[in-house]
Amino acid sequence: MKDYIKVGKIVNTHGVKGCIKCVPFTDDLERFDDLEYVYTEKDNIKRKIKEVWYRKGTVYLTLENIEDMSTAESFKNSYISIFEDQLRDLPEDTYYLFELEGMKVYSDEGEYIGEISEIYQPGANDVYEIKNNDKTYLIPAVKEVVKEVNMKDRKIIINVIEGLLE
């Protein structure tokens, strides 16, 4: 597992007192209420969360030592992260997205399909981007397709339905 886990991307500032606007990388927005601090990727500094609020799926944070718009602006397009020990336990058969990236994907007949290079969250279900040399496949993360996720062996088994790999 990685040391730092990205939990949001700083996309803008808010106001003149150093508030940052973040796109969260979590399904549970209120997750930020439980965090005491985050790490800013730009300077790799642990910063105490002074205030957090939410609006329209976006997280607004006031962080320690970011107290004006100019300083906040310098963090734009960088990430905020947490350490592994700040992660919440997940229910059985659910995974953090970063845990799935890089996993090898096989058909239920044992054929190697490729490796998960990216995960998209367009709406109803996640979509796994699987790359194998010059080929790229987009696989819906639904039970009809994803049959097994083996974290120990870093391997995913999928049911290759008609038209899926074309």
Automatic annotation (TrEMBL):
This is Ribosome maturation factor RimM. It comes from the Bacteria. The PRC barrel domain binds ribosomal protein uS19. Belongs to the RimM family. InterPro entries: PRC_barrel-like_sf (IPR011033), PRC_RimM (IPR056792), RimM (IPR011961), RimM_N (IPR002676), RimM_N_sf (IPR036976), Transl_B-barrel_sf (IPR009000). It is found in: Cytoplasm. The keyword rRNA processing applies. Residues 98-163 form the Ribosome maturation factor RimM PRC barrel domain. Binds ribosomal protein uS19. An accessory protein needed during the final step in the assembly of 30S ribosomal subunit, possibly for assembly of the head region. Essential for efficient processing of 16S rRNA. May be needed both before and after RbfA during the maturation of 16S rRNA. It has affinity for free ribosomal 30S subunits but not for 70S ribosomes. Residues 7-85 form the RimM N-terminal domain. Keywords: Chaperone, Cytoplasm, Ribosome biogenesis, rRNA processing.
